[in-house]
Design a protein that fits this description.
The complex is a heterodimer of chains A (166) and B (160).
Chain A lengths: L8 H67 L5 H80 L6
Chain B lengths: L7 H67 L5 H80 L1
The chains are: A mainly alpha (166), B mainly alpha (160).
């Protein structure tokens, strides 16, 4: 027995259409996801910038407070060795405050840099992979549509036209 | 001869000033600490949601490809062109799997950044903010107490 050669034309059309739709939808959903993650990173960066501004303000406020304490301390009539100890401790305090706030600023700058170096390559790589994937899906879907359409046309031609009355 | 002593009123005021400064330092650094917590919590929460969304999308792609491959297998089409068609279907399948893999990798790498170095540095920042605030407050309070003690000592010696 030989095999029947042919195809269900409606099924071929539907199959080609569904592959094309699926490929495009997946690529669009991937891009939407990438955009959402980029938005989350941007919002985080904005929060970090706000924190940096607040920390700079904190540094200014603490330095102002320290200046006020030094001025007020200097204006107090107070003598003796303990006064020397007070002045020395106050200087050490000022240094500790400056070091602490400086470290906070350094930390925030480091975190912003970490976000850039940590996420930028991942986002770029993902964007490139999605684009390449979407392009390839599109190419394969076009090939498939072309194959199905040609097959459909040829089959239709072979099966439905050209009959010569016996 | 050098006179030893202090202005008791001014020392009281100085002691109060230190006490107030300590409270201010605490308030200011607490505000920064809260900002650090909020920023990290919001970001990790968003990334957790997106990670879940990415994994859901990967599952969705899997299910869709299984469905389409079944549909392709069930399509009535015979002859040599069917084999060519199967090749194109396989190629399309590969490309969609590649997209799914890219999504998986992306979600994994993004989670690693959030849960690894970033969280660690944010925690370090939080610790430094706390330490700076606590130290400044404690030292201010100590100054307040020391100046007040010195004032009391002068008062006792001279007026007691």
């Amino acid at each position: 027995m030989s095999e029947l050669t042919g195809a269900d034309l409606a099924q071929l059309d539907e199959l080609a259409g569904q592959f094309t739709t699926a490929g495009n939808e997946i690529a669009v959903k991937g891009e939407t996801l990438r955009t959402k993650i980029q938005t989350a990173i941007d919002a985080f960066n904005t929060s970090l910038s706000t924190l940096q501004t607040n920390t700079t303000n904190l540094t200014d406020q603490m330095n102002t407070e320290m200046s006020g304490l030094r001025d007020q301390g200097a204006s107090v009539g107070w003598t003796g060795n303990n006064r020397g100890g007070f002045d020395s401790d106050l200087n050490a305090f000022g240094t500790a405050v400056t070091t602490g706030t400086g470290q906070i600023n350094t930390d925030i700058t480091a975190i912003k840099s970490q976000v850039d170096t940590g996420f930028t390559p991942i986002m770029t790589e993902f964007g490139t992979a999605l684009k390449a994937g979407a392009d390839d899906v599109n190419t394969a879907a076009i090939d498939m549509n072309t194959a199905v359409t040609n097959q459909r046309t040829n089959l239709d031609q072979a099966a439905n036209t050209g009959w010569t009355n016996a | 001869m050098t006179m030893i002593g202090g202005d008791l009123g001014a020392m009281s005021a100085l002691s109060s000033r230190f006490s107030t400064a300590g409270a201010n330092f605490q308030t200011q650094t607490t505000g920064i600490a809260r900002g650090v917590d909020t920023a990290l919590e919001e970001f990790t929460s968003q990334m957790r949601t997106l990670d879940s969304e990415a994994r859901g999308l990967a599952e969705e792609i899997n299910a869709e490809m299984t469905r389409l491959n079944s549909k392709a297998a069930a399509t009535t089409w015979t002859g040599a062109n069917r084999i060519k068609m199967d090749g194109i279907v396989a190629s399309l399948d590969d490309e969609i799997v590649a997209i799914r893999t890219a999504i998986d990798n992306f979600a994994t790498e993004a989670s690693a950044v959030v849960n690894g170095a970033l969280t660690s540095t944010m925690t370090g920042l939080r610790t430094n903010v706390d330490t700076t605030g606590t130290n400044a407050t404690t030292i201010s309070d100590n100054f307040s107490t020391s100046v007040e003690s010195q004032r009391a000592a002068f008062d006792q010696v001279m007026n007691g």
